[in-house]
From TrEMBL:
It comes from Coniophora puteana (strain RWD-64-598). Keywords: Repeat. Residues 2-124 form the Nephrocystin 3-like N-terminal domain. It comes from the Eukaryota. This is Nephrocystin 3-like N-terminal domain-containing protein. InterPro entries: NPHP3-like_N.
Length: 129
């Protein structure tokens, strides 16, 4: 499920998203988050999104950590920025989430992932991989 928060620039979408993320973190249902920002070069491109989300998933559950560690041990270059975002997403996020599907389903609680301020992501070649 996707919830899309949209509105004009300056309409307080970011504070709402931060408040929601903090609430989900507090009640243990925040799986991962990434907040884009033009003011922070590391957070203004897609280069760090997948590794960050993957790292947070690994912190969240040992099965995800195991899956992510195995993939990185098998192919350490997967973390390099020039690698395909599709391949990074599939191997570092999607496959670990598949391992957690039944675990989180049995817990009867929804897990939430936040990607916020996508409009803050700078256009460029590195964001198109």
């Amino acid at each position: 499920k996707i919830i899309w928060l949209s509105g004009e620039s300056g309409s307080a979408k970011s504070p709402v998203a931060y408040t929601l993320a903090e609430g989900f973190h507090s009640n243990g249902t925040l799986a991962a988050s990434f907040f884009f920002s033009r003011r922070h070069p590391v957070r203004s491109t897609t280069e760090r999104v997948i590794p960050t989300i993957s790292y947070q998933l690994g912190l969240r559950h040992w099965r995800a950590k195991e899956a992510i560690s195995d993939v990185i041990a098998e192919d350490p270059s997967l973390l390099r920025p020039e690698r395909s975002r599709y391949e990074q997403f599939t191997r570092l996020i999607l496959e670990p989430l598949k391992r957690l599907k039944n675990v989180w389903k049995d817990a009867k609680s929804s897990m939430v992932m936040f990607l916020e301020a996508l409009d803050e992501c700078e256009p460029g070649e590195s964001n198109e991989r």
